[in-house]
Amino acid sequence: MRFRSVFRASKVGIQRHSQLQRLQRSHSQHQSQSARPSFGIAFDIDGVILRGHDPIGGSPQALRRLYNDDGTLKIPYLFLTNGGGVPESARAVELSGLLGVKILAQQILQGHSPFRRLVQRFENDLIVAAGKGEPAQVMSEYGFKKVLSIDEYASYFDDIDPLSSYKAWKVEQAYRIDEDSKKSQPRYDVHSEIVKGVFVVSDPVDWGRDIQVLCDILGFGGLPVKGRGHQQPPLFFASDDLEYQAKFPSERLGMGAFRIALESVFNRTHDDPLEYTSFGKPNPFVFENAEATLKQFLLNIHHNQLTTNEAQAHSFSKIYMIGDNPSVDIKGAREAGHPWFSVLTKTGVFKGGEDNHPDHPADLVVDTVEEAVDYILRREC
Ligand SMILES: [Mg+2]
């Protein structure tokens, strides 16, 4: 599959170390090996750690137990979420504030994080980024050079959304406005330059407008005007969650629901079916990537005793995936196989009316994330 080859091409290169360093290390290696955690933890966020912006399930206390008294990381862990919309660095700052522990940007794997592996392919091409938050900022930070948010792109085409005058809200124009003409000035020649790729970075806000504009761009070969071409630009979704647990008591429609809506409309209005690639859990690629990232954290914890190669060669006996969504978190961990061990909480999509999920049963079902961490530390430490 396409995303697999992208991942392989960007694996960390081999580093060389002098013989002296190896000799020095080999002394301490034997001693440290027994103390080296042979397990890691991946936390889903929505419905496990947070509901909206509120910590749930004892998550702050649970996370604190993964650090030493001096604040350094004791257990390699990361957040593996299908959510997103802001750069990983911003999400790390936000989570640190909400949860009271120091979380690094490298510990955040969001639905759109794998998009950074597509930079080489689209680096200098005009691309459109859709979704809540700061989708264009996310893509720019990954290294894409010519990115427009769908809000900005749509603003350059008069009447592209025939319902805009009925919408009570106004899109905040963070992009440039010419003070003389009071009209927005495109940074690129959007009326002739073809959009080479479309990225749905986070949950779209204005489904009606976005479905219309994306059908235009994707159906007319990269320009929202009929008769210019038919080759569909590549389309990427950061995830494919049908539903997720937010603050409202029952589940909310996620990016997968938007994908179904877009695909359904597109396929009824165009001859060729919509082509797309979805990232995010339960895709096995995401779990492989998370395992590789967790191994990097061994370097942080044992920076004096491990090389990059040794960290990557390290094999975890277990990696715990703690999630609330059976068809996303649990299905993904089960399909990823060894060393993944799935833990289902009852604080989100799975409400716990039954002992376990019938179609995607977890290895362990607990009430809260705090209970999950208790279990893991009891078993492993
Ligand atoms: Mg969740």
Automatic annotation (TrEMBL):
Any one GO biological process: glycerophospholipid biosynthetic process
| UniProt protein name | Uncharacterized protein YKR070W
InterPro entries xrefs: CDP-alcohol_PTase-I (IPR050324), HAD-like_sf (IPR036412), HAD-SF_hydro_IIA (IPR006357), HAD-SF_hydro_IIA_CECR5 (IPR006353), HAD_sf (IPR023214)
SUPFAM superfamilies reported in the protein's UniProt record: HAD-like
Q: Which gene encodes it?
A: LOC120273509
The organism is Dioscorea cayennensis subsp. rotundata (White Guinea yam)
GO cellular component assignments: mitochondrion
